[in-house]
Amino acid sequence: MMNKVVAFVPIKLNSQRLANKNILPLGDQPLSWYVFNNLLGIEKIDEVCVFCSDEKVINYLPNGVKFIKRNSRLDGDTIKGNEIYESFINTVDSDIYILAHTTSPFMTQKSVENALTKVLSGEYDSALSVQKKQTFIWYKGQTLNYESNNIPRTQDIEPIFIETSGFYIFEKQHYLESGRRIGYSPYFQELDDIEAIDIDTKEDYEFALHIIQNNKRAIEI
Question: In terms of CB atoms within 10 Å, which of 29, 35, 78, 146 comes out highest?
């Protein structure tokens, strides 16, 4: 039996920390264009949806994206992610969902596709994008992954994995039963430093502009 796969990207146009974040220009396209373009290129995805309260968001996306109107109440600053995910799941049926975010424009199609393949294989119940950090970590005033009186070599230290928020892949049934976008046996899709860039602030955006401008120069050369 084939699993239906739906990718959705929640967007609100009234972002606070960085005004108009999702539609700011980045290279030749608006920021929101990049993640949708990647998702549309993955054959195993049946539908790619934008979940937004304002239809004008379509003007900033590639052709082929399905607009799903959400209640403007979900644009509130105190709304939690789970409220948005549940609303979408109750609106659009699927076996597997890919939750992605526009703030990760450098995340590659290959990374999402590989993680989706792992979940579809049945070996994992979910997947998420992460960054692996193998260095000395402290948390609440204490060393987290090594003993301060027994300092290991960096290559021997226990690595930690940081969620990038680029994407999460989860089964509908599992989410309905547990309320978790990450299951109990997740696959960690490791992203490199560029892929993992997440744009939330003006400084993040300016750094992303620098990255894309440098890449353009490299191509021209």
Answer: 35
**Which residues have a Cβ under 8 Å from the Cβ of 66 and sit 6 or more positions away?**
47, 48, 49, 50
Cα–Cα distance measured from residue 165 to residue 180, given in angstroms and rounded to the nearest whole number: 14
Looking at residue 189, which CATH number applies to its domain? 3.90.550.10
Distance (Å, rounded) from C-alpha 90 to C-alpha 175? Answer: 12
> Is residue 16 in a domain?
yes
Predicted TM-score (pTM) of this structure: 0.91
Residue 25 domain boundaries: 5-130+163-220
In this structure, is residue 17 part of a structural domain?
yes
| Any domain includes 145 | no
Residue 137 lies in a domain: no
Cα separation, 136 vs 159, in Å, equals 9
Q: Are 183 and 126 in contact (CB under 8 A)?
A: yes
Summarised one tens digit per residue, pLDDT across range 25-52 is 999 999 999 999 999 999 999 999 999 9
